[in-house]
Design brief:
By secondary structure, this protein is mostly helical. Helices cover about 70% and strands about 0% of the residues. The chain has one domain. It has 4 helices and no strands. It starts with a helix and ends with a helix.
Length: about 90
């Protein structure tokens, strides 16, 4: 289920419906956040990366194509995480 499908329910007149829809949206986004966090952990473990070192833009990047691909995947996961956190209602 997509969050966009649930958003119209946030404008419903009933407070119970709005609260229920908001709960569904938060649960859905939390599942997505958990998925991307697990994906980062898997990439970190599988390629023996220390992703924290690569958060520094001055840190040299490895020449190995597989590691570079893993780093790009990690970057995409981080972008999805940020997007999910921005969409999450408070």
């Amino acid at each position: 289920m997509q969050v966009e499908v649930l958003k119209p329910g946030l404008r419903d007149d009933s407070a119970d419906v709005r609260r229920t829809v908001q709960t569904y949206i938060v649960e859905l986004l939390d599942e997505g956040i958990d998925f991307y966090e697990q994906m980062l952990d898997t990439l970190d473990t599988a390629y023996r990366l220390d992703l924290d070192t690569y958060y520094d833009v001055l840190e040299p990047r490895p020449a190995d194509k597989h590691v570079r691909c893993a780093l790009m995947s990690a970057q995409k996961c981080l972008l999805c995480l940020v997007s999910s956190l921005e969409d999450r209602p408070v």
